[in-house]
Amino acid sequence: MKKLGLTFFFMLVLGQITFSQVFRFYNDFDSLKTEVIFQTENFVQTNFLTHKVTSDIIFSRYITNEVMEKMQNKLGSRNLLNAETRQSLQFNYRVDSNLVVGLNVADRILGYGKFSNDVIYVLSSGNRTSQAEVYDFSGSNINLFKFQEFGVNLKYKVNNMHQINFGVNYLNLEAFNQVQLKNTTFSVNELGTETEILLSGIAQFSDTTNKSFMANNGGGFSLQGAFTTHFSILKNQPRKGTATMFFKDLGMLYANNRTLTYEQNDEIYNFNGIYIENISNYKPRVFREQSPDTIYQKIISSAKFEKASSALPWLIGFTVVQPVFEKSNFSFGSYFRNISGSLPLFYGSFETEINQNIILEVNSNAGGFGNFSVGAGVTSTFDKLRIKLKTANLNSLIFNQTQTGLGIFAEINYKIK
């Protein structure tokens, strides 16, 4: 669990990346060859957690009140987090002029959640300013899943105008962690010497004794697909544009009967003499030392082993690519990730071919889980080898105390024939 937590916090440094960079469908079907592709993508989308705060937490640096206040000023009616790290290897084989068959394997971590304003206030300020206050955590949740994906994909050209992509994946569930708070509050008395928690919710964790890479703590499945058609917005443009509707991660995860489950219903816990300035100096042992009875005897004794399941946060969207000028493309689109409180994300990009070996791109996005951001990318071709490197939220490098991070996407594509 410790290793998985560190990996999750590492993702928070990486920031946000546009959907158009992460998920790519072959609109240039006729030029697709038999090929091997390696991809790495790491991103976080959030509307409250700044790059400065997350990096200070990871590297154990002191977090000033000024930095905390700037993050708290970003809080709104919905405080959302959506993060993923994915390393994948794909093999595409061209069967004939109308059919391409692909195999893929990927190692993925998904983390997402929704937090009340009070959760963020307490995590960032502790109870040093919480005297005689009651904080409401109700409705907050966090989910963290690690799994391996083994899939088969078909790309079929219906005619010169349409293309269908469809894939099915088996998921090997390595880690399953989720916490959902219902009626939950946190309060400190006027002197700050006693903390009371009213707890109602459920927490589930897969077998903590089976944590190695590719460990099997359950399974699952997912589906993905896309439909592409050709058209042209610009009537005088000789090259046709494309419009694609797509979906991804339509599926389920199933944890086995070794899943540890803690369920509390309106239980009250008291902690005496605990003082936490902020999350950067939080130490788990403080609760073990100060309140062993309430933590170990009440919460731990309620634990039970049972099966658990969760639907993957499916995604649906569209993208439009329109050629402009002789060697340039403009694209735009939107997608929606099915996570409580999220909004559709809208994005656009412009790419142009500098020469036969280099393509440059600029992009921007707004909505979804984060704020408005801009990014850039470059594609280099060396004979049969093609390398892509893209990012979004370049503005976070300049305004790291107010913006929400940096994302990175890289791809190495080798055409066999």
Task: Explain the layout of strands and helices.
Elements: H1 2-14, H2 19-22, E1 35-46, H3 51-58, H4 65-72, E2 79-96, E3 99-115, H5 117-125, E4 133-136, E5 141-157, E6 162-181, E7 185-188, E8 194-205, E9 218-231, E10 241-272, H6 285-290, H7 292-299, E11 304-311, E12 315-324, E13 328-337, E14 345-355, E15 358-367, E16 373-382, E17 385-391, H8 395-398, E18 408-415
Helix pairs in contact: 1-3
Quickly list its features:
417 residues, mainly beta, Porin, 18-stranded antiparallel beta sheet, globular, disordered N terminus
Provide structural commentary.
There is one protein chain. With 417 residues, the chain is mainly beta. The chain has a single domain, classed as Porin. 14% of the residues lie in helices and 54% in strands. The chain has an 18-stranded antiparallel sheet that branches. Helix 1 runs antiparallel to helix 3. The longest helix is centred in the first third of the chain and has 13 residues. It is globular, with a radius of gyration of 24 Å. 33% of the residues are buried.
